[in-house]
Specification:
The protein is of the alpha+beta class. Helices cover 48% and strands 15% of the residues. It has 10 helices and 2 strands.
Length: 233
Amino acid sequence: MHKKKPRLTKAKQPFHFYTRLNLIEFTGKKATNLRELVEIMKEVPGSVIYHHTHHYLQQHLYLSPEPPNDFAYWVTYILREDELGEEIASIDLCEFSTIRSLREKIIETIEEHLARNPGTLRTAPPGAEFHFFKTITFILPTPYIAGDLLEFLKALRKISIHSIYFHMFEAKLRLEKGENDFSRWIEDMLKEKELAREIAKFDPYTFTMEGLRGELCRLITKHIPGEIIECQK
C-alpha cells in the first residue's frame, strides 16, 4: 500500500507572487565632500538611499553576494577616507527593517567621523562627485498563487529571481513591512512558526538570488514529508 501524504494546512488567504521592474532616475544632486554628502542624504527620498545600498544586488542578481555599498565605495576610493569607508561598508543591512533607520545609521557614522576629524574636508576631483540616483519600482502580479506549503514550494521553483528579490528584500526594507513576505505568510496563514522563523533569521544578503532560491527550497522541503528538494526553474 502507498502511504498517504500528510494533509497540508490550507491558508485562509492564498499567497500571490509579485515581481517588479525598476527605473533608475538621476536626482540632479551631487556631493563633492562628506559634509555635502550628509546634508543631501538627509533630504533625499528613501528611494535614493535604497538605490545606493541595493542597486548592485539588483543589477547582478546571478553574481556573488555581499554587493558593495555606493557610499562606502565613494568614501574609500574617491575621498581616500579608508577608515570611514570600512565603517560604512561594515553596516549590516540585514539589521534594518526600514530605509529610514538605515539612512540614520549611515549619517550617524559619517557625522561621528567628522566630529573625530575636524579640519579641512577632502574634496572629490572634478568628474568624481557622488551623484545621487533613485530607484522607481513598478510592482506587477505574476500568475503564481499558493494555497498551501506544497503549492508555495512549486511556485518558488518557477518564479523569476526578480520576484524572489521583491518578496525577500524590497517588501521588508523599502516597503517597511519589517519582515519578508514569505515568512510572514507562512506564519500568519499556515501557522508554520518554526519554518517562518528559519526563513526570517538567515541573512539573504549572503546568497546569490539563485542561491537564495535554493536555500528557501531546502528549508521548506524539510517541512513537507516525502517531498524531494528540487530548486531549478
